[in-house]
Design goal:
single chain; alpha/beta; six-stranded mixed beta sheet; five-stranded parallel beta sheet; 44% helix; globular; binds pyridoxal-5'-phosphate
């Protein structure tokens, strides 16, 4: 697999290099030179999730890593279930919430851990990642206990749910967590600054596990195929997929799935009040505003890192811009969406409710909609209990950490302070 740097097109790397580097020169994102197109999509959709995912990822990586390796990595990474539920006659929910940390981030993080394990045998590395809530947990769990790899996670202090925080800040060992006095965008900037510091980068062999890492995006392509596979054949003609979006990795993966041949008519990019993309799609102006804290905190991103990949993909595929509709969902609309789902017998949480609300507003009579459920309702226990006036029981992974002590260090959004911490790991 060959990739080029979106900010410096002459920088070309293979997949292994892109995974290890994370970002290219000038903080440019890596983008595939070509997308493999799958034939016999119908046959593929008839397969089970893991076998189909082996085929999908083999098309990207088999030549470079060896098909046997790809198969082993996929089977190790995707060792937990996913589900598609029917919400009403026209709408389905793709549940990506049944992994070890109860959010879709488990798919990408676990596959990335498999990749690094294969590519960095016996080399020391430090994974530095910023999280708006769920990436931290997924990455920390995927790498916890590995001998050669340290993980450093930055998150905005007080801006993620307590249970989200407990899932990854109570592990200790090779997992180091930093509560940053600032926003998620500040955390992302600290990660970028760290990668710009060549001395630091070499000293601790820095690697990123953000959704900018191509290995995570490729893994996420697989569940878009599963969503379509579970919709009855008679309803597959006019499919619309609604993606609750923050950093826009998930939507990038969905569009890559379409480029590989998945029959999706269009996508809805649903955001919370951090609506840089919906405003951009409307006006053509890219104007990030200060980040607003919402109940769908994993989507509190005002400068989404993956957007340039989406623009590039739309351009090289020659797609019409109308393929992606941006919809901003306010806090009140999110609550309404959550209540509407509950009234239909479906328990969701703020992120999924945003996608469902946006879909509901967008869908025409001749279309079938799928929205992504990106986190387990219990991970947002307080909001869900408050909005729906119900009580939730905690699933095992959360019950296990509820009483544990948070081990994070508090730092300011100040690169020199972070640098000192990282050098001391
Ligand atoms: C990360 C996350 C999102 C946003 O996904 P992106 O790929 O960053 O757009 C949405 N919902 C939940 C629960 C998340 O953890």
């Amino acid at each position: 697999m060959e990739l080029y740097n979106l900010k410096k097109n002459q920088q070309r790397v293979n997949f292994s290099q892109a995974v290890k580097l994370g970002l290219g020169d000038n903080q440019g994102l890596f983008f595939p030179t070509s997308v493999p197109v799958l034939n016999d999509i119908d046959g593929l959709l008839n397969q089970d999730f893991v076998s189909r995912s082996v085929t999908i990822l083999d098309a990207w990586l088999g030549e470079e890593l060896g098909s046997d390796n790809v198969e082993t990595m996929v089977r190790n990474a995707f060792n937990f279930p996913l589900a598609v539920s029917s919400v009403n006659a026209q709408t389905y929910a793709l549940e990506l919430t049944h992994g070890p940390t109860l959010a879709f981030k488990d798919f990408g993080a676990r596959f990335m851990a498999q990749c690094l394990n294969l590519l960095c045998k016996n080399e020391k590395a430090t994974i530095l990642t910023a999280t708006s809530g769920d990436t931290g947990a997924a990455v920390a769990h995927a790498f916890f206990g590995l001998d050669n790899i340290d993980v450093a996670v930055l998150y905005p202090k007080g801006k993620i749910s307590v249970l989200q925080e407990k899932l990854f800040c109570t592990l200790g060992g090779n997992i180091h967590t930093y509560a940053v006095n600032g926003s998620f965008d500040d955390c992302q900037q600290l990660v970028k600054d760290s990668f710009d510091d060549l001395e630091l980068k070499t000293a601790i062999r820095l690697n990123s596990a953000n959704s900018i890492n191509i290995s995570r995006l490729l893994a996420q392509i697989c569940y878009f195929f599963e969503a379509v596979a579970k919709v009855p054949v008679a309803k597959r003609d006019n499919l619309v997929i609604s993606v609750p979006s923050g950093n826009f990795g998930d939507l990038t993966a969905g569009l890559l799935a379409k480029a590989m041949g998945l029959p999706v008519k269009r996508f809805v990019a649903a955001t919370n009040e951090n609506d840089t993309v919906p405003r951009y799609l409307e006006s053509g102006l890219w104007q990030p505003q200060p980040t607003i804290a919402t109940r769908a905190n994993a989507m509190d991103v005002s400068a989404p890192n993956n957007w340039p990949r989406i623009e590039e993909l739309i351009k090289v595929q020659g797609w019409d811009k109308s393929l992606v509709t941006g919809v901003k969902v306010t806090e009140d609309q999110m609550s309404q969406g959550l209540k509407d789902l509950y009234a239909q017998g479906y328990l969701c949480e703020p992120h999924g409710a945003i996608a469902a609300f946006a879909l509901n507003n967008e869908l025409t009579d001749d279309e079938t909609g799928i929205f992504l459920c990106t986190a387990h309702p219990a991970k947002f226990q307080e909001s869900v209990e408050d909005i729906l006036a119900i009580e939730l029981t905690l699933p095992q992974p959360l019950a296990d950490v509820a009483d544990k002590t948070i081990l994070s260090q508090e730092i300011n959004a100040d690169f020199s302070q972070l640098r000192q911490q990282l050098m001391a790991i």
